[in-house]
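Subject — a protein and its fold

Tokens — whole-number codes for backbone shape
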Amino acid sequence: MSKAVLRYARALAGVHTSDIVTIPILGEGGSVISAHLLIGPASQLYSTSVSDSIDEFTDPTLVDDLERRTREIQPSTVAWPDEMLDIAVDDELEGPF
């Protein structure tokens, strides 16, 4: 999911616009809550791997939506096969998008 968010942020920055995305995160006590991110040209986002974390949770519908939004902005951009190698590739991102 983090790659989808970062790809969308990069696409938004490329066209000098912004958007708000809502992603699931872990809240107090381990419950899943929503975080709202404003992403765009001035975004300072990062992702990092955590070796001893709980199992990763994903939202395939959110990933699909972010990838659709990214394709609307950058229809010919391909996936990042050589970037962020420490982050698992989203299942939905095989081949160009």
Observations:
- Residues 3 and 84 are 8 Å apart (CA to CA).
- The longest helix spans residues 60-73.
- The longest strand covers residues 19-26.
- The helical segments are 2-14, 60-73.
